[in-house]
Amino acid sequence: SLVWSGLHDQLSARSGTILSGLLTFSLGSNTTRLLNTAMNGWTTEIVANPVVLRELLGAGETFRHALTIFLKDSNAYGNTYFARYFEWQGICRERWFYECVAADMLQAEGVFITKHAEQDYVPETFPFQEVVCEMNTYDLKRCSFWLEFRFYSGGKLVSKGRQQIVFANHAKQITALPERVLGKIRRFNRVAQLPQ
Asked: Alpha-carbon distance 92 to 96, whole Å?
């Protein structure tokens, strides 16, 4: 069975009781440890980087947008102002639409409406840190889909957020997404929920 640990990016598999021992080996950016406990048997633990985990979970392509935090992005305490992450979500989303979905942003057919947006903050960030925003889609439906944003600095998750996007005609009535863009959106879809 596969079990997610909510505190770490770990994937664990457990089986019956076997001989006691410990074996650790590394392969690329993953570390695999075979641990034996008298009660539970062998435990295989794969500690993977987030990119490898998304591949294991069946995620499609991941869109990435890099940015640098500047003084203008900080508040009076010197850390990154929380609203900047919402701004960066929008920049990443618009760049993804333009580069991967439709350069005209489907303006002739309708409008994209952000129905819901949220952002969780992990550690603080500061000016002159480099940040990479990774984005995937999920829960794609006829008229809507979700975007998941993960912000990393120095390889560590610093913030994560999401948006629900609804497609509407010019009269602002919710309508089906054009068939020609569904496949483009689906390319970035992830199948399984990532650990919180």
From this structure: 6
